[in-house]
Structure formats: C-alpha cells, structure tokens
Amino acid sequence: VSRIGPIVLPADRYYHPGHTWAKPVGAGEVLVGLDAFARRIVGDVRAIDLPSPGERVEQGRRLWTLRFDGRALDQPAPLDGEVIEVNEEILRHPERLREDPYERGWILKVRPRDEQCCVANLFASDLAKKWVELAIQDL
Amino acid sequence: LMEGIAKYLSEAQWEQFRKRYFPVA
Fold this sequence. Notes:
The complex is a heterodimer. By secondary structure, chain A is of the alpha+beta class.
C-alpha cells in the first residue's frame, strides 16, 4: 500500500493518470473504480453517469462523469474493453464511495480487450503515489 | 488535503486542475 496522509493507494491494482484504477479479478474480468485522491477532491458524489453493460470503453476516453455540488468531473477508462457489469449499489448510493472507493466502491466490471490488460500506460501504486503528491503540491 | 476541495476552487482554478490531473482524451 502507498499512502499520502489520508489517501491510500492499494498495491493490488493499476492506476490511470486520470485517477481511475483497474484490478484483474479473474478470467477476463477487471474491476474499475476511482482512486482515493479523486474521491477526496470531489467530496460527496451525488450521482454518476455510467455506460451500460455491452458498451465498449477505450483507455483514456471518458468512462463516467461524477456529479457533486454543482460541478462535474469526467474520468477516463483505465483500459480498453467492454462493460459487463455495473455496481448497482454504488449507482443507487454514490455517497458510499466516501467510505470505500476500492472494495465495495468498485464501479464497473470490464472484460479487457486483450490479455495484456492493465500494464500498458498504467501506474503501479508507487508511481501513482508520486503523481498524487505532485497534484497535492499544485493545490 | 481538504475534503471536497473542488468546490472551494474558482471555476478557472478547477478547470486548470481538472485538465492537468484528470486528463480525458
């Protein structure tokens, strides 16, 4: 685990510079969510605009939009693939992302386009930590 | 880092921060 104050970045997943994560969980399935830095920046999420199962997603392109306190934040897909499941609990209760953006707070399950999922263009947690530190300095 | 800091930034500050640290193609 990498930690910056209250912001934790578990070592068991890969991070996109747009503060989404990908965690392989089995045969051709990857969970996707937002990291604790994004969660802290936005505070309480009021709603999430999500793609539906069956939709294709592309690394770096908009995957979802978080809505909070009158503002919105688009976040990118961490990998190429197809959405196979939406976390309905988080969709109905996005405020629960505050408690746990990593386990119960996964947002989508994606079938990756290729076997090399989650290596290309993504950070391990130690590099993601440096990226978060830079952003915090900027703030 | 302040909880929910985005809402305390000006619109211009937020846009600049968002584009740099939350890049979307």
